[in-house]
Amino acid sequence: MAQANTPTPMENAAKPVQPEVPTNRLRTLLQELYSFFTRTDATHLEITKLLHAPQDTFLYHDTSALAIDHATAPRQSDLANLRDNTTKSPAQREAEKQDLVYVRLNDGDVGTVVNGGQATTETMVKAFEIVLEDERVRVVLVNIYGGIVRCNMVAESIIQAAARLGPLRCPMVVRLQGTNSEEGQRLIQESGLNLIAESDFE
Asked: Domain ATP-citrate synthase/succinyl-CoA ligase C-terminal spans what residues (predicted)?
């Protein structure tokens, strides 16, 4: 996608099916659409029908769709405010308030909490609350890869969050990989909570 705005791909994309469509105007439009796509952190941009109108203008006809990366909503607030939140579950809306991304799947009984770059106690508490609200969840998998983030610090946040929630209604498996992962696993094992420390998936 990073090379899509070079002359050759744009020239090819702007070749019209009908010869009376001005290539230069169409190429400019495609460049503007590409710029909009990248500027808005979009993951999907679709125009069902594009009509060539009088005076060499173009009209969007029928339907169009735009999807932006959920994680970029804070910096794309103008677009995020246009979303129809009535179709979202209370858990999804609550997650977005906490800058979390929550995806509820149709099947399965394993709830997952992943990443951890911002794994503070508060975010962990909210993440666990949201996942455990789903009555289908029988076990929670916390999968953390600590690059520049130290796993022992993440482990402390997980322990504090689990302790604040009280007795967990299901086991919680914590997989830590990365910086200080062994120390993090030791803290999880010695926490005295319903937490199971693992270093891999085997």
From this structure: 106-198
64 in a domain, yes or no? yes
**55-87 pLDDT, tens digit each:** 667 766 667 788 877 777 778 878 777 776 666
What is the number of structural domains in the chain?
2
Q: What is the DSSP string of 55-110?
A: GGEEEEEEEEEEEE-GGGGGGGHHHHTTS-GGGS-HHHHHHHHTT------SS-SE
Nearest to 98 by CA among 79, 78, 113, 84: 113
Whether 136 is covered by a domain: the verdict is yes
Q: Are residues 93 and 49 in the same domain?
A: no
CB 114 within 8 A of CB 146: no
Interatomic CA distance for residues 21 and 88, integer angstroms: 42
Kindly report, residue by residue over 28-57, the tens digit of the pLDDT: 888 888 899 988 888 888 887 777 777 667
Phi, psi for residue 184 in degrees, rounded to 5: -65, -40
Co-location of 93 and 187 in the same domain: yes
